[in-house]
Amino acid sequence: MTVGETFTWLRRAGPLARIERQTWQRIAVVCLFGAAILFPIGHRNDADIDAAANALTFAALALGLNIVVGLAGLLDLGYAAFFAIGAYTYGAMASWQMTPDWSSFWEPFQWLGLVARFHETSGDVVHFQVSFWLMMPVAAAVTAFFGILFGFPTLRLRGDYLAIVTLGFGEIVPIVARNTPYVTNGAMGLNGVAAPQLFGWSFGVDATPYYYVGLALVAFLILTSQRLKFSRIGRAWMAIREDELAAAAMGVDRTKMKLLAFATGAAFAGATGTLFVAKLQTATPEMFGFPVSVMILVMIVFGGIGSVWGVVLGALILQLLQSWFLEDLSGWLHSLGRLIHVEWLQRIELASSIELIFGLILVFMMLYRREGLIPATRRVAPLTTEEQTAAPTRGGFEGLKGLGAVEERGSDPLLEIAGLTVRFGGLVALGEVSLSMPAHSVLAVIGPNGSGKSTLFNAVTGLVSTQSGRVRFAGQEIGGLAPH
């Protein structure tokens, strides 16, 4: 049965079939997470648990990039920069890297348990020891702020231009980390980052507790992504992704929604960076380079751009492929090379060619399966009559205002345009255009191509900025207002 036939059958079967389908989906999700919870208990191999914990880290990163690229349609090639900001935020607050001189300013923070006072030969200094559980939301908030800060200059950019700017941002952050030794210890990286503690028990270097924290983080981000995707915010993001101009005409605040997408994706990366640096207990600039951003992008393309479950599956498969399968395959090729006396097979190391393998996967997916392993859900069948029929909301229709709801204004026109001028550089698209339109009337604007008809409509609706003139509708000045 095809996807279209499935949707048709669900409509004909009625709500009971849909409820049953949703029930089975929930059962499947519970079983998957149950198996994930039991994995470290039934599988005592520390290396495999560590690889699974790393895979969950990249799954969380993929969920964040899916917000920006998959839902909002903003190509980000520097996503690892937010990952780095979150990691360094926690690393600086849970290590001996920064040791300012002690003063009375730090006493309230000492009382809260955020800093400690240590004696040195040169005098007392501050040792930051902020809790991992407190720093995870703080790091998310810090990276969200940087996401907004980075988003402002890129609001007018699209496609390749946006990708180039994000690529530059992704390269700048590691350079800044190398050149701020007081905070990041430069190229040597942060060392001695404190391990998380829970009720006095330290996680240490055991991979199992980090695996469970990563699993909880991924579960939370999946729930958040799903709620956002099917909310008004998610629909606004997808509208911008499909047609930014049409979204603006329908009242979507493009500036607000784009900044919110950058901030949300950055917050996901910041929280994940906190877990990442806590697990490794170190952070160096080389951990957050351009290859990391590309790997995360390949994961969401492989799993399915815009599909929450798809990007999680894609990240897990590719990361576990790198950790488990490539090493075993390299060993098998070494044995084969010795058997058939082929020297280059005995020296091949697939794990060191992971960038090439990911690049081949990306090319293959773009050529043969652009929708990914689990395509994002889309409506593939027309709406039924019942679905197309408007139904009153909880508040009724009182809030709706159409042309028939506009009060009669005597001889005053409903729409009045006076001296409207629009210029694009030195080109005058509209020059001193004036017209008036009474209520309950039809006005035709006729002219050859390039005469400014579309520009006139865009200027009236706020899609194009005007240089002079005024626009009044129903007695109110609307000139210069945004479409929303």
What does this entry look like structurally?
Helix 3 crosses helix 14, helix 4 packs antiparallel against helix 6 (132-151) and helix 13 crosses helix 14. The protein has 18 helices and 10 strands. The protein has 3 domains: 43-94 and 132-368, no CATH class; 99-129, no CATH class; 403-477, 3-Layer(aba) Sandwich (Rossmann fold), CATH 3.40.50.300. A hairpin with a 2-residue loop joins strand 9 (468-473) and strand 10 (476-477). A 4-stranded antiparallel sheet has the order 8-7-9-10, with helices on one face. With 484 residues, the chain is α+β, with helices and mostly antiparallel strands. Residues 394-401 have low confidence and may be disordered.
Defining traits:
484 residues; alpha+beta; Rossmann fold; 3 domains; 4-stranded antiparallel β-sheet; two-stranded antiparallel sheet; 18 helices; 10 strands
